[in-house]
């Protein structure tokens, strides 16, 4: 499948669960991916699951992870993802758990790219503020707000301590959050500053 062929993405802040699910879908679709993982254990796990199709790096090596061949062929020619040596940035998409995590990567996002925040914490106001900041570059900023999502090791992230379950009656999966995040990044081309709940209706009983 080549749905994301020629696209380049960086995933930061969460290398398991939602972040890993996003990386898998991008890799399956032919994208070039850098996944930033905080701990050696996370890096080993992600590398085992993604194989050689993605670069898994430590936070300190994140910028180096954007070095050639990730950022072009050096001849100044524009590639299928729209990036070119000499452009403001070389990344089409940044997926990050928080504004603070995304900010060091913003200089690498090409004009017309997209940033998607992937954790429950960023407020709608912070999403809108970053969207306004980057609007002049044509960069869309949106967020998914996951809730009642099954955690990688069992249990559930953001799951209420006691029943009831959300209106849909079940716990969601990281894969479902990944699909929503990728929709915001690739399909919602006239949407910015939005925060999309992915919680089975928990926030709208």
Report on the architecture of this protein.
The chain has a seven-stranded parallel sheet with strand order 3-2-1-4-5-6-9, with helices on both faces. It has 205 residues and is α/β, with parallel strands linked by helices. The protein contains five helices and nine strands. About 9% of the residues have low confidence.
Element-level helix/strand string: EHEHEEHEHEEEHE
Number of helices: 5
Distance between the termini: 37 Å
Shape: globular
Q: Find the structural class using helix and strand composition.
A: alpha/beta
Strands side by side in the biggest sheet: 3-2-1-4-5-6-9
Largest sheet: 7 strands, parallel
> What is the rounded Rg?
17 Å
How many DSSP E strands?
Answer: 9
Rounded mean pLDDT score: 86
Helical percentage: 10-25%
Give the low-confidence spans: 72-89
């Amino acid at each position: 499948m080549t749905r994301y062929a020629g696209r380049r993405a960086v995933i930061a802040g969460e290398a398991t669960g939602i972040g890993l699910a996003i990386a898998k879908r991008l890799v399956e679709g032919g994208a070039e991916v850098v996944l930033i993982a905080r701990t050696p254990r996370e890096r080993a796990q992600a590398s085992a699951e993604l194989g050689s199709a993605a670069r898994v790096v430590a936070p300190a090596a994140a910028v180096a992870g954007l070095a050639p061949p990730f950022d072009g062929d050096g001849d100044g020619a524009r590639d299928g993802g729209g990036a070119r040596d000499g452009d403001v940035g070389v990344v089409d998409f940044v997926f990050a758990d928080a504004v603070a995590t995304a900010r060091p990567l913003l200089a690498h996002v090409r004009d017309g790219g997209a940033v998607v925040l992937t954790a429950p914490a960023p407020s709608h106001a912070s999403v809108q503020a970053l969207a306004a900041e980057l609007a002049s570059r044509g960069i869309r900023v949106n967020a998914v707000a996951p809730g009642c999502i099954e955690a990688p090791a069992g249990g559930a992230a953001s799951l209420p301590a006691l029943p009831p379950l959300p209106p849909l009656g079940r716990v969601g999966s990281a894969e479902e959050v990944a699909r929503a995040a990728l929709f915001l990044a690739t399909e919602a081309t006239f949407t910015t500053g939005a925060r999309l709940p992915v919680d089975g209706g928990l926030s709208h009983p």
